[in-house]
Amino acid sequence: MLTAIIGRETTHVRDWVNVDRVAVIVAIIAVIVSVASVLYGRRQADIAEGAKQEARRAADAAEQQVKIADAAKEEARRAADAASDVAKMEARRDHLAGAIKDIELLRVESRQHPNLPHRNLFAVFRNSGHRVYRYSIQVEYNTNSHSPVGTGRIHAGETVDVHLLRDGIRYGGIAAWFDGECPCDQPDGDQGHWRKFWRAPDPETPRDEPPNLH
Ligand SMILES: [Zn+2]
Question: In CATH, what is the architecture of 104-199?
Answer without folding.
Answer: Sandwich (2.60)
